[in-house]
Amino acid sequence: MSGTLSLNLRIWRQASPDGPGAYGSYRLEQISRDLSLLEALDVLNEQLIGAGERPVTFEHDCREGICGSCGFLVNGQAHGPQRATTVCQLYLRQFKDGDTLVLDPWRAKAFPLIQDLAVDRASLDSLIGAGGYCSVNTGNAPEANGTLIGKDQAASAFDTATCIGCGACVASCRNASASLFVAAKLAHLAQLPQGQPERSHRARAMQAEMEQQGFGSCSNNLECEAVCPKQISADWISWMHREGRRQSS
Amino acid sequence: MSPRSSGLPDSRIPAGPVADAWRRTRDGLPLISPLRKRQLQVLVVGSGLAGASVAATLAEQGYRVKLVTFHDSPRRAHSVAAQGGINAAKNYANDGDSIERLFADTLKGGDFRAREAGCHRLAEISGGIIDQCVAQGVPFAREYGGTLANRNFGGSLVSRTFYARGQTGQQLLYGAYQALMRQVAAGQVELLTRRDMLELVTVDGVARGIVCRHLITGALETHTAHAVLLASGGYSNVYYLSTNALKSNASAIWAAHRQGALFANPCFTQIHPTSIPSGDAFQSKLTLMSESLRNDGRVWLPVQRDDPRTAAAIPEAERDYFLERQYPAYGNMVPRDVASRRARELCNGGQGVGPGGRSVYLDFNDAIADHGRATIAARYGNLFEMYERITGDDPMAGPMRIYPAPHYTMGGLWVDYHLMSSIPGLFVLGEANFSEHGANRLGASALMQGLADGYFIAPATVTAWLAGNPTPEIAPDHPACREAEARAQGRLHGLLAVGGSQPVDGFHRELGHLMIEYCGISRCAEGLQTGLKQVALLEARFHQEVRVPGEATGPNGELEKALRVADFFSLAQLMLRDALAREESCGAHFREEHQTPEGEALRDDGSFAHIAAWQYQPGSGEPTQPAPAAEPVRHSEPLQFTVMQPSTRNYR
Ligand SMILES: Cc1cc2nc3c(=O)[nH]c(=O)nc-3n(C[C@H](O)[C@H](O)[C@H](O)COP(=O)(O)OP(=O)(O)OC[C@H]3O[C@@H](n4cnc5c(N)ncnc54)[C@H](O)[C@@H]3O)c2cc1C
Ligand code: SF4
Ligand code: FES
Asked: Closest ligand 3 atom to the C-alpha of A60?
């Protein structure tokens, strides 16, 4: 019920990782403010297909902020201007008629470009593979209520476990560090009794893997926290550094 | 003796009492030596709850596992979006729950169109799932004393739902995903992301591999194995707008169906009553608003048709709290199908609100007055924020608008008690198979089923199959692989060659309109016939007018969509046929011809207490065109009830 608006889009177009890239300029006329930005890109793509041009490639799936597929920069900001919001949940009513939106892919060494706004974030899976789990084989589990965990402690573990692996923290960090992502996983498991046996190993292994995968190191700019759609606190990064000292001592 | 009817393989339902049938079966299954396991390759398609859990478990047991997913990471599978929770008969709430009660609720909830033995097994396994997930570090909600918290879900009389705030699916999936990544790092699982399964390879009628398209290079790849497991999720996206993620699809199961895997109960689809309604033509998604909102929200519509006033301007006396009026006992908590049907009827009658009159109010005003804003915010704050982000309206200030949305598909590939399809060596897990929800699934039971299949059932039954069928390894250049590649090649080049002018999405949108109209909440013979004709016409137009830009090589999102939509057309027709053939109302399948004078579903146990299993009939079309399939054949597997006799649901 909130009417329509027109937008100018400048979108990074790059057909292949080693090919040339440049901004393409587009205009969307009189589209509903009730559309999401990704739906606006759907509209644009239908127009491009109609005109015989290659549609814009961008990652998406759930479109409700939980799968972590979507993600690009909107006017330099990872996931756009709205706090605690993935770009798939960004609606056009956040913008004004006639606004220009510049869309760029995540840029980080550990996230090689695929096409246009899509990048490869498999390096985040490698970080989890390095130690982001509890080593329990299926069938070995004790009775669930055998281990008591305080309500607040469980809730705090949950808060760190909500990271959706979108990579916005990396993309917004000038060192392209994955510290927030790694700290979140370490904190999730270190706050639970189940995570204790492998706690030291996990912290060492995941941080080593971070270097291995070409992520930078943290220099406390806190941009990651500002863009994180799940509002994971950067305090966990300082905690992670203390955790490292705890183990080496 | 297992019930059996001609044309169907043995369903291998264990003889004897249902109560410990699974334990008896499991204890009698053959085993394989660790040494031999290392020589056996298992292929899993899908990394949702079902796929990730089975791949991790089989790898732990020593098998060589390949996992194929179209996602860029296993963590993104659609299971991540499940909100409400997972059921288990732990009786932690000490409110009289038990395995027998969960079993009975599942069978009853499915309106007696599921197998008794299967439902019982789920209930039996449910507790072990929670133990496993807790051991992995899944941060379920807890009580102050430190024990696990439970809630009441979907109208159940006991509290047996375990949850992690509104993100239970996410946390369960991450548990399975982490177990999986541990095996990937250990070299036990080869992870093949960004691959779309397009064909199934069979050799002498046995499943031996798949053909998939690499979504970045566009290359067709063939992967062979000693057993193939499909865990590729449900097909609600046949309706275009649904609560499913946009790329959820039926292509993997449809490829298997084309090769002879029977498809069971395709018309059993669940329409969830509380989603954010659609507005603009370009809306791409219906976002689910958790069912828990009905605990405090009151559903209503203006008494007056086409009432132009805002909700606030409509006085109490002119509001119709229709669920409370029609179902005094259950009120707003009636089951999903009932709530959906009543909302649709009134909207069709002109009482609906919002764009096109296609929504009803869900009002928290009274709840706020009774419990205070703070309490309501604590209960539903996240959901309210999500609603406001999408619609721009604040549910604290005025009622939400909601409308039913396609959500879950009970139908799927037919499997026997061992989760093996009618193609030997092909197993089907999770939402992709048709078990055990009958004609209607209970809230919080899909997660339970996916993990029961993946952690516990399939690892045992796949081992048993491999023990008894020492099939030799086949090479990817086997003639059967070449044939499957040629079929895939033919289909994708056929789509690229159409050279029409219309983008894929437009066709998908139209298909969705037809399906929701004729095969949605309410169905009748005439509508289903019309639907069949119109879908066939639309399909023909699609193959003449679609424009799929780009090439087969390199990333091509439009080609991916076109392949999926092409399969949805065929599946849609099977759904319509199945709905037409099932001349009764049961669970979520409501045939207008079959209702009580009060408008409730009327089952016909005499003629329809069976599972319908459809067999694909290949047509004779060009290999590059979708073969206009000849009439599929309907088989039926009779259902036998020994513990509980079919009763009629009554929520009045
Ligand atoms: C919004 C929402 C909320 C829900 N909430 C609940 C709840 O609270 N409780 C509950 O019990 N249930 C809930 N459900 C249902 C439940 O989430 C699903 O039924 C369940 O997660 C399905 O799991 P799955 O493993 O079978 O499939 P999915 O999680 O859908 O995974 C499918 C996998 O298969 C892969 N795949 C699919 N097709 C192909 C192909 N052609 N080639 C290669 N890979 C392929 C995908 O990449 C993915 O990895 C909800 C569903 C929705 C939509
Ligand atoms: S920490 Fe936040 S920004 Fe980083 S990947 Fe996780 S959810 Fe995304
Ligand atoms: S598309 Fe899933 S989080 Fe944005």
From this structure: 1
